[in-house]
Description:
The chain has 298 residues and is α+β, with helices and mostly antiparallel strands. Helix content is 41%, strand content 17%.
Amino acid sequence: MSEIVGIRFKQCGKIYDFEVDGAEVEKGDLVVVESELGLNIGTVIEGRHREEDPGNKRKKIIRKATEEDLLQREENKKLEAEAKTFCLERIMARGLPMKLICTEATLDRKRIIFYFTADKRIDFRELVKDLASRFKTRIEMRQIGVRDGARMIGSLGICGREVCCKRFLITFEPVSIKMAKKQELVLNTGKLSGVCGRLMCCLGYEYSETLQKDTMLLEEESLSVPDEREEEIAVVSNNALLPTEEPPAQSQLGKRPAAEAGQTALQPEKQEEKKEKRKKWRPKRRRKKFPPKTVPGK
């Protein structure tokens, strides 16, 4: 079984497994590996461990990073800055509805990758021709989401600290407005949105904490509820100390109690009073008396 290590290329990027292949590397070392994009320098995050599935084919570590590799990476940063400025000029010249986020060049300069965001698909074939004729290398355009763009650029959040996706978040969990309602927050998108324009990621793990507290409270309430038998015993013991009174006589079926009968007896008197008041305020209209009709000739 081969030994593998976990390598990360960016600060909060994913961890990829590479085969050691006899190289003496430890956790925290810089190594040169061949990824899907080309030669890159990565950092060993996870130490050596045996591979569980030997059938998987892993790429191997080429060597530990030397001073020449580090100098080459610094020179590539100048190339990346030049490529970004030239790409922005061509985007403005061609009027493409896209936002360039950053550029990345491989260690051997065989490929330059341009990351951008856009609301829809864009035909950038002419732009790729302009970039390829200028830098004489392979050009790759990658469209990413607004959250990934905020992670690459970095910024300060509403809390005054660096955004979570730039510091420690590796994956983006789904965030909904239901989480804000559960925490009884003001449903104002301006206050709940981050620099990316989406709901803040911190609503997610604060929502999980509230759920844990609710479950704990429910468990405590279920444990604190007394048994019904204990309540009955307590009531009987209290009644035994009080002076006994004769229970009220129950009314027979089909008959009303005396209190209700008294209320019904008072109802016709109240109705008569209401009628008299209406007569005072609304007197009867007197009919007009017309003289009898006389037939002519009689």
